[in-house]
Amino acid sequence: MRAAPGKRAIRVDRPASGLYAPRLVTVRGDGPGGAPLSVSGVRVDAVREEWLVEDRWWTSDPLRRHYLELVLTSGRCTVVFRDLESGRWWEQR
């Protein structure tokens, strides 16, 4: 991350805002690194898909996320990801 001359760079520990911006959620799991059991209090019925994104590894601000597409017991499908740098969970619609 670079700052303008005479300015200090500040790392923001949240994704950018916008229409489809991720929002912080509470995910309860089956132990550290285990499968999610609930998202914001709604139980997970199934994990449809999961994938890992590792990008910007060559910079001072790498992106490392573990994504999961989930089916909740409410019938809603959602995509959540765990930021592997901070350990926080986010929901992406």
Please characterize this protein's 3D structure:
The chain has strands at residues 23-24, 27-29, 36-39, 42-55, 63-72, 77-83, 89-92. The chain is an all-beta fold and 93 residues long. It has one domain (23-92). The protein has a 7-stranded antiparallel sheet with strand order 1-7-6-5-4-3-2, with no helix packed on it. 11% of the residues are buried.
Protein traits:
mainly beta; elongated
What's the total count of β strands? 7
| Strand proportion | over 45%
What integer value in Å does the Rg equal?
A: 15 Å
- Multimeric organization: single chain
Q: If strands are numbered along the chain, what order do they take across the biggest sheet?
A: 1-7-6-5-4-3-2
Helix and strand pattern: EEEEEEE
Determine the N-to-C terminus distance: 27 Å
Show the helix and strand layout.
Layout: E1 23-24, E2 27-29, E3 36-39, E4 42-55, E5 63-72, E6 77-83, E7 89-92
Antiparallel strand pairs: 1-7, 2-3, 3-4, 4-5, 5-6, 6-7
Offer a quick outline of the entry.
This protein has strands at 23-24, 27-29, 36-39, 42-55, 63-72, 77-83, 89-92. By secondary structure, it is mainly beta.
